[in-house]
Amino acid sequence: MLKKWKDQPIVSTVLVAVNVMVYILCSLTGELLYDRGQLDAFDVLLNKEYDRIFWSMFLHSGVSHLFNNMVILFFLGSMIEKEVGHFRYALLYLISGIGGNLLSLLAKVVNGDVAASLGASGAIFGLDGVLLAMVLFSGREMENVTPTRVLLMILYSLYSGFTGRNIDNAAHIGGLLTGFLVTSIICFWQRSRRRAFS
Hints:
The chain is mainly alpha-helical. It has helices spanning 2-6, 10-29, 32-37, 41-46, 52-55, 63-84, 86-111, 121-137, 147-163, 169-196. The model has no long low-confidence stretch (mean pLDDT 91).
């Protein structure tokens, strides 16, 4: 019974459900949650509203924005969650999203950008980084997943972001790098432990 729960995408399902529920609340409350949670440098750095770095990951600008992110989150997330476990997956997702938003803030400050941003895509790009680190460094065999395929998926996603409009590419890159670096560290640590006990 425990193994059955272990293989289920519990965290991915909860994350999708939370994002959908937040979007419904946003639809019912108008601009209230957006004004309180979207990421902008002025409110975070001058008003010290640091919680926006976290909450903005759960806000979406429209149905298509939400749908696109949630489809990728569920299918990509379910695969990673099965490999790394529920707790570690949740941690990697949230850390990636925060890392993405921190780079987004830095880019806003450097570029003098006063626009606000929102969405789960920084955390989702983090999952791309997690997957790339896993196929490169974990030593695991993952069915139909190769470094080349993961790199092509990442390059296509980045290309789509840079050729689109109103896209926070800094958040995408920040999430991708955070997920990759944190997972790489975990993989090397696990391999060193295995060597130490072998």
